[in-house]
Structure formats: structure tokens, C-alpha cells
Specification:
The chain is mainly α and 107 residues long. It has two domains: 1-32 and 80-97; 38-77, no CATH class. It contains six helices and no strands. It has helices at 2-31, 39-46, 48-62, 64-76, 79-93, 96-99. α1 packs antiparallel against α5 (79-93), α2 (39-46) packs across α3 (48-62) and α3 packs antiparallel against α4. The longest helix is centred in the first third of the chain and has 30 residues, at 2-31.
Length: 107
């Protein structure tokens, strides 16, 4: 069950990264300059209230220093650079040989 969920979510993240890369690529071609939309911009466009709520929750309940250097760095990274590595890690974890048990040697 875990392998299936890991592969499903991993494929979903890789697909989102690919779509974001294509969108940024078309914007780059149209503008004749490098354009990379950050993850925080997409999050703010879709649900600005949840971004503010997440910031308040992390700073209040988890650790205030976690928001500034760690999460803001992730939010300023392009979407494709954020989701592609996470998707590939999940796909790697969902492989069959990852969970295959080794047989004990008769020695």
C-alpha cells in the first residue's frame, strides 16, 4: 500500500513539475528572458489565506526561525525545482526492490 501511494504521489509531483516547467518555458520564450515562477507565487494565487495561515501556524506553533531561512527559501524556488526532486525521491521509495527482503545466506 505504501509503495502504491509513494508512486502515485511521486508521479503527481513529477507531472506538476513538468507542467510548471512547460509554462515557465513558454513564458521565457515569449519574454525573451529567463522567467521562473516561484512556488510561493502559485500558492498565493490559488489560496492567499492559507499561505498566511501556514506562516502564522509555523511561526507560532513550530518554530519562528523555521519560516525565515527554510520555508521562505523553498517558496522562492521555482515550482519545477521544488516538486521534481521530491517526486523522484517518492518514485525511488516506491520501487519494488526497495522493499524486497534479502534471503539469508546458508553460510
Amino acid at each position: 500500500m505504501f509503495r502504491f501511494l509513494a508512486r502515485l504521489v511521486g508521479l503527481w509531483f513529477v507531472a506538476m513539475a513538468l507542467v510548471a516547467l512547460v509554462i515557465d518555458g513558454t513564458k521565457t520564450i515569449a519574454a525573451s528572458a529567463w522567467v521562473a515562477t516561484p512556488l510561493g507565487q502559485y500558492w498565493y494565487d490559488f489560496a492567499p489565506a492559507s499561505l498566511n495561515t501556514a506562516q502564522a501556524a509555523v511561526q507560532r506553533h513550530v518554530a519562528p526561525f523555521l519560516w525565515d531561512p527554510v520555508i521562505q527559501t523553498l517558496l522562492t524556488a521555482p515550482v519545477w525545482a521544488s516538486f521534481a526532486p521530491l517526486g523522484f525521491i517518492l518514485l525511488w521509495m516506491g520501487e519494488r526492490r526497495w522493499f524486497r527482503r534479502r534471503r539469508a545466506s546458508p553460510i
